């Protein structure tokens, strides 16, 4: 029985360093190759020694597919391809291909230049790695080799995020990456057709959450920003450069326009300008509305949002600043935070999740006195707000996707074990399908039961369809008979006659004859004629022929009459039939005997 | 499998393919050359046009002075221009399941097909094709609606009258079916039926056929199509190009191994080299400007103009034309330029120098929706104007013809290959302005297509009849036609071709349960066979075979009579037999089963075995066995089973 095996090297009952190995139909595929943000040691990257202890990965993997540009999905890519060694194809969408190297370079700079790590991938390695990338278009079916094909679906989440279908023969797996089932201001909702994969591998970040309406959260956000501005405060929004930042920018931009607000909005420089450029470039990946209106007005060409300069932070009066990074652990957002923290008129809004140990995490937990480097402390007087704008599917969304794709099995990754357990129960209950949640290094095996594709001769098929009638009749299933010829990997189903011809075999006729004696005073032809008329009246619905050569044929059973020379009233009936009619003959013979020995027959014989 | 040909225009095709119970329309091009028979529609009142004399028949019998005007010896219809539609009588258009569009030039008849015909299907096109196609339609509608013409000439269409008219009106075909332009509402409704597809995306049609667009390299979003089932493959090649000016190269390898290749959309200018023409275009442009004249370039708002702009961008610096203003006037100019930039960049993904930005940023190319408004105040001469429509019958170009036609300093440069420039200019004669004809057609030429066909090796090629003979004007150029073995099947408007296709196999899926129950036996090395008895299920054109359900256990029934009346249809019929029964081995087997008294008699074809104890005969021959046995069913079945041991069952 064929099997599909799924082994997470990362993101198994965990969030971070997504890397999932899939073995399907003799092909090995790596889905995502991410890094873990919570670690700075070896655990940062997936454990590739699981694949092979020594040497390169090329011969063990048929392809690598990257779902989107977030580092927890692609951060280990140069390490894997250049330092461990992989020369096969790496598939990702055009936007991911464009943005991914920028983020990788940024990640490298922080790790090597700032933290001073050695033994890390270099800029050149990122470039070399990107040379192995083959771009994917949405819905395009890409043939990796003769048997393995992949197809990308829109996933929402971030620009260029894709779900991928992996197919070998009639077996298939769908991997969602991160996805979002509700459209937002700049991206559409994830969509997939009813492709009925053997396994659907889904993220489950928000496995237990059902979020309130986005509209409420947005209104809340705008209200808070507005109030703060009204009382002359400054608002800091720490963000990561790509993703939610654009969503919030559009939100504020339209709000400013509508309310005719004058307070400046700034966006900290760096990655962001480039990011907005890519959003403009890949406008087809954004949602319908943006695409429709871009000719008149490009949503990413902001009127109210201007580039930030360090000196602006000390300007008097209200302002809104988007600054990186998102968890207040370093960089510009932290600098601004320090400047503004002492004033209760100001506000910081955290639009996403913060990892333990970061200042973002601390202030969200209500800490009001922060210890900074150099033993100084910082009093946090400004307002702290948290608002989740992450573009992940919630429990409702995950269920919705399952309904869309109708998988035969479910497999959860990219979530916390406890929450997964809950969702797993829900899925198994609602859809009656198996749901797996392997931990890292653990393998989930699913047996598949693929149908065997065969080429049927059109003659046979048409004959069968004509006989079967236009509508199936469950009470009378019709049986089709044919011969399957297996030759050089080809499977052909043909009628038995054609099979004989194609295989160059001659048919062997097996016939039987039996003799029955009968008393009948008539002449031979008359006897035969009587048999004919009697059979005709008894066996309705069969082809009964009286042939000119002095035989009667019932279907293909031949009946002849002869009489011995001495006794002309003793007739010998010769019944002859072929092996193929054996069963029918048995049935026929009984009726035949009951016929010729019936009273009616005898009476007729005597009367004459 | 049949092909219905609804258009005879080789580059504006409209064919319908019937393939495996699906009806697929391939492109729906609109033949606009019919508008050349009409008078131009001026944007502002033109005294010259309104003063043209009416045409009067020589013998004075016909007087259509309201409808027909004469200009420089030619007769024109004074009415809103009309188009020659794809044939609508050849088959019922409401039966069309899908329409596949290959590029934005080949979809202009779409509203005529999808609206008011009962069409309920889906149209498939790539996103650039849809967006730019919408612009071209919108432009056409706006051109027409801007200058509404109260009068609609119909009398001249009368067969009796048309016969008396001078050529080319006399020879125009199907004039009764010619139609005015559609409305924006019809365009929107037609385009709402478009489903977007990406290159190499496989689209299933009713489970029977799979269609897939391939990059054709001709224009933004242009595609060829593959229409295939598991065993048959039709390639539809429309406007394709091997030039590298377009972002996505032509996908040739996917066209391989097709049974039939339908070839349309070759270059209309087989003898003109696009690069040479571009050079000529630039040098004529520079010459006119230097002499203080204006240059008029009639063009569509999308397509060749992108190439011209790119070429000019490089040229104007070197030719020292930095101060000359370039104008692009079209109701959709802005959108067209935006789209060209966006789509081009998406396709290549590395943003090199954006075309529009540089030309606009340097203030060289300015675009306006029309000659009215801003343009009239900002316009200065000498200048270069790109504007439509290339037929010179409607659009802003009519105005510039009237304005600049009288001066020999000005030049009109034709770059679009769709119209004969002499015919286009006819209603403006006599004309003082210079005319330059540099048609730029980047589609495949005969040399390229022969090479392509050699590469992809289709079994049969279908093409417009124009491609099977040299052009009329160059009848000696046998290199300007398709020469293939087997010869291509030519079509013309209204042809119905039976495509040489023999479908012999169909895909069927054997369900796992049944597959596991099959017992294969090896016939010869590498060849095995198994007999299959199964129930066939056909749903959505997908066929599956599953095991014969076991008959439910017969409940002990009280009505036992007439059981034998029911014929045993549920039982499997016996298989065919093959092989031969070897005498010695068979005798030995008989012996093993206690049949010892066997008299063997040799005959011409084999042997007769006489089982003396039972008065039974067995006739053994190379290709048959005959058992004659009376009233001894147990013996007969034993013998039958023994014979069967030596034979193969199919």
Summed up:
With 608 residues, chain A is an alpha/beta fold. In chain A, 32% of the residues lie in helices and 25% in strands.
Descriptors for this entry?
heterodimer; A: 608 residues; alpha/beta; seven-stranded mixed sheet; 17 helices; 30 strands; 32% helix; 25% strand; B: 650 residues; 32 strands; 23% strand; elongated; Integrator complex subunit 9 (chain B); Integrator_9su (chain B); Beta_Casp (chain B); cytoplasm (chain B)
Topology:
The complex is a heterodimer of chains A (608) and B (650).
Chain A: E1 3-10, E2 19-24, E3 27-31, E4 63-65, H1 71-74, H2 77-85, E5 90-93, H3 94-114, H4 123-131, E6 133-136, E7 141-143, E8 148-154, E9 162-168, E10 171-175, E11 199-203, H5 214-230, E12 234-238, H6 244-259, E13 265-267, H7 271-281, H8 288-293, E14 305-307, E15 319-323, H9 331-340, E16 347-350, H10 359-364, E17 369-371, E18 377-379, E19 383-386, H11 395-405, E20 409-413, H12 417-431, E21 434-436, E22 444-447, E23 452-457, H13 458-468, E24 479-487, E25 490-494, H14 496-503, E26 509-519, H15 524-538, E27 544-547, E28 551-554, E29 557-563, E30 570-578, H16 582-596, H17 599-607
Parallel strand pairs in A: 3-4, 4-5, 5-6, 10-11, 11-20, 12-15, 12-16, 13-14, 13-15, 16-19, 20-21, 23-25
Antiparallel strand pairs in A: 1-2, 1-22, 2-3, 7-8, 8-9, 9-10, 17-18, 24-25, 26-30, 27-28, 28-29, 29-30
Helix pairs in contact in A: 2-4, 3-4
Chain B: E1 2-5, E2 15-19, E3 22-26, H1 47-50, E4 68-71, E5 74-77, E6 98-100, H2 110-114, E7 122-125, H3 127-146, H4 159-164, H5 184-191, E8 194-196, E9 203-205, E10 209-215, E11 223-228, E12 233-237, E13 260-263, H6 274-290, E14 295-298, H7 304-318, E15 326-329, H8 333-348, H9 355-361, E16 365-368, H10 374-378, E17 384-387, H11 397-404, E18 411-414, H12 421-425, E19 434-437, H13 446-456, E20 460-464, E21 489-491, E22 496-498, E23 505-510, H14 512-517, E24 521-524, E25 527-539, E26 542-547, E27 577-578, H15 583-592, E28 598-602, E29 606-611, E30 616-621, E31 624-628, H16 633-644, E32 648-649
Parallel strand pairs in B: 3-6, 6-7, 7-8, 12-13, 13-20, 14-17, 14-18, 15-16, 15-17, 18-19, 20-21, 23-26
Antiparallel strand pairs in B: 1-2, 1-22, 2-3, 4-5, 9-10, 10-11, 11-12, 24-25, 25-26, 27-32, 28-29, 29-30, 30-31
